[in-house]
Amino acid sequence: MTAAAVPAASPASTGEQSGVRLARSRRNAELSLLLLAMVLVAAYAAMVEAKALDTITPDFWIPAAALGLVFLGLHLVIRWLAPYADPALLPAVALLNGIGVGFLRRYDLAKATPAEREDLAVFAGTGGRQLAWTLLAVMLAAALLAILRDHRSLSRYAYTLGLAGIVLVMIPAVLPSRFSEINGAKLWIKFGSFFSIQPGEFAKLALLTFFAYYLVRKREVLSLASRRVLGIDFPRGRDLGPVLVVWLISLLVLIFEKDLGTSLLYFGMFVVTLYIATERVSWLLIGLILFFGGAYLAYLLGSTVGGPFANFYDRAQIWLDPFAEPYDRGYQLVQGLLTLGTGGLFGAGPGGGQPALLPEVQTDFIFAGIGEEIGLFGLSALLVIYLLIVERGLRAALAVRDSFGKLLAGGLAFTLGLQVFVIVGGISKLIPLTGQTTPFLSAGGSSLMANWLLIALLLRVSDGARRPVTGAGGPAARPAGGPPEQLHGAPTEVIRP
Amino acid sequence: MPELVITVARFGFLILLWIFVFTVVGVIRRDLFAGARSGRLVAAPRGIGASTGQPGKPAKAKRGRAAHQLVVTAGQLAGTRITLGEAQITIGRAEDSTLVITDDYASARHARLLPRDGQWYVEDLGSTNGTYLDRAKVTGPTPVPLGVPIRIGRTSLELRP
């Protein structure tokens, strides 16, 4: 009966129709944006040399070209393996990474003696190392795209990844300080004197995958059972369990690894994925109250008891009044603020600053160092680029059809944004300074690799989100028997009596 | 290097940086509109072919009057009305259903109503207690005439013009 009433069309013709209408993979837009980004990176390198060396050496373009080649490689991999991925992500990240490498090279020039400056090898110094790390990180990202053909298969390893994440977080805390402490924060695993990795950066990704998987399974309980107080739905007491556990872990991180930023990052990540999963504002309130309560308690304990809380108390003191001891504890933050101030609105021009005067300019304070040379005008462009990357991530989360993908992409994008907020807020004295890396800019292989993996995941999810829905034959074929996928993406109109 | 060249280059670099930002925004903007068009195009559900008519144009009703409202006639939500558009209506206890029903006999994703060529079809999504059109159990996509009750647990729904 049904077949007679409805003119039946084969699924193949439906797929073809949508394929024709949606065959806008926008890879060419990505390629041209990427070229523009590389032109900017090369221009930056040329201006640095013009200002710092008073001449442009004939091989100023080599680092930019090396970066361009490897990004082009990733672009080709995306064309091949994730053709519908978001076109704005790769160029935006490439520009940030390129500026980072360019600035670190410029920092090497500032430290080098005049004799060394003339012929600085491509892979020499901090900038050269960062260039090498970038090549490696981009290759890792391409490998992840090749291995992970569908982001949903990641949920199969969720518990393994969750365990791995917790182990990675714990390692620096339990290792003796000798092996894990740099500048008062125990976040590293040191091998020898110059090579160290920061496992927390990778733990971030593993934990987030686990959170996304766990919350997809628990979202109904967490969002349906609630009490209504003051117009906000609060969860039942016993459902608070997991959030309390994560809160405790993040506090332990704060105490034993002495790092507010990492602690804030983990906790914020969890609370936001919880919020995305349940759509309950109360989780955000509970999260903020718990975090600020915990941080304030740690501050009070630091001022009275000391011990493991003393470091946090110190940092809070510096934050409250950096100019109290401008040559001692507050030196770094004060220099950072002065550097940003020197930059002013338009900066001293690339190569015109004094990055060697700023401690830790290659890692924590790179944003201040760059700010001195490109000013507020340039810094806000960089911040807008971060914002666009986060926006594209959230957009992929909105568009993707499965709940796990939504939580994963939303959480990843938010984590990236939160990390930028924590470090930029730290150096501009909005929040207490903590040793977070600035994603894609700071020197450091762990951070670079982890963040490129994050981008690869976002590319994968956005590819899944934007891929035209074909019938049963496409790569995004739904599992036979289950309810059709587009149900979850259907516009929702909740109606209550 | 003459100072003038460096100053020009300095500002040129900053302007180029912002040009990059705006180009990215432009790409995203075009992308948003492409995305909006794609949102309407969903794959054909199991058992029903897509309309072979001109895509994009709202199909006209073939016979009788078209349904414009879904009314809950019995159950906890009795009296609720949903204006029917071109989108499908999902019914179940899950929060992301179009019509969230709190009925002990309803499944999380119980059934859905979908329009094809102006005719609405009801389809059971593998619910535990089944969906009934009047007295008959719904097994596949079934056309729903106006005024005939669809029963889900204790809830009863009807299409109205």
TrEMBL record, chain A:
<dbReference type="Pfam" id="PF01098">
    <property type="entry name" value="FTSW_RODA_SPOVE"/>
</dbReference>
<protein>
    <submittedName>
        <fullName>Cell elongation-specific peptidoglycan biosynthesis regulator RodA</fullName>
    </submittedName>
</protein>
<feature type="transmembrane region" description="Helical">
    <location>
        <begin position="88"/>
        <end position="107"/>
    </location>
</feature>
<feature type="compositionally biased region" description="Low complexity">
    <location>
        <begin position="1"/>
        <end position="13"/>
    </location>
</feature>
<keyword id="KW-0812">Transmembrane</keyword>
<feature type="region of interest" description="Disordered">
    <location>
        <begin position="470"/>
        <end position="497"/>
    </location>
</feature>
<keyword id="KW-0133">Cell shape</keyword>
<feature type="compositionally biased region" description="Low complexity">
    <location>
        <begin position="470"/>
        <end position="484"/>
    </location>
</feature>
<feature type="transmembrane region" description="Helical">
    <location>
        <begin position="237"/>
        <end position="256"/>
    </location>
</feature>
<feature type="transmembrane region" description="Helical">
    <location>
        <begin position="283"/>
        <end position="302"/>
    </location>
</feature>
<feature type="transmembrane region" description="Helical">
    <location>
        <begin position="31"/>
        <end position="48"/>
    </location>
</feature>
<keyword id="KW-0472">Membrane</keyword>
<feature type="transmembrane region" description="Helical">
    <location>
        <begin position="407"/>
        <end position="428"/>
    </location>
</feature>
<dbReference type="InterPro" id="IPR001182">
    <property type="entry name" value="FtsW/RodA"/>
</dbReference>
<feature type="transmembrane region" description="Helical">
    <location>
        <begin position="262"/>
        <end position="278"/>
    </location>
</feature>
<feature type="transmembrane region" description="Helical">
    <location>
        <begin position="60"/>
        <end position="81"/>
    </location>
</feature>
<keyword id="KW-1133">Transmembrane helix</keyword>
<feature type="transmembrane region" description="Helical">
    <location>
        <begin position="127"/>
        <end position="148"/>
    </location>
</feature>
<feature type="transmembrane region" description="Helical">
    <location>
        <begin position="440"/>
        <end position="459"/>
    </location>
</feature>
<feature type="transmembrane region" description="Helical">
    <location>
        <begin position="365"/>
        <end position="387"/>
    </location>
</feature>
<feature type="transmembrane region" description="Helical">
    <location>
        <begin position="195"/>
        <end position="216"/>
    </location>
</feature>
<feature type="region of interest" description="Disordered">
    <location>
        <begin position="1"/>
        <end position="21"/>
    </location>
</feature>
UniProtKB/TrEMBL annotation, chain B:
<protein>
    <submittedName>
        <fullName>FHA domain-containing protein</fullName>
    </submittedName>
</protein>
<dbReference type="Pfam" id="PF00498">
    <property type="entry name" value="FHA"/>
</dbReference>
<feature type="domain" description="FHA">
    <location>
        <begin position="89"/>
        <end position="138"/>
    </location>
</feature>
<keyword id="KW-0597">Phosphoprotein</keyword>
<keyword id="KW-0472">Membrane</keyword>
<feature type="transmembrane region" description="Helical">
    <location>
        <begin position="6"/>
        <end position="28"/>
    </location>
</feature>
<dbReference type="InterPro" id="IPR000253">
    <property type="entry name" value="FHA_dom"/>
</dbReference>
<keyword id="KW-0812">Transmembrane</keyword>
<keyword id="KW-1133">Transmembrane helix</keyword>
<dbReference type="InterPro" id="IPR050923">
    <property type="entry name" value="Cell_Proc_Reg/RNA_Proc"/>
</dbReference>
<dbReference type="InterPro" id="IPR008984">
    <property type="entry name" value="SMAD_FHA_dom_sf"/>
</dbReference>
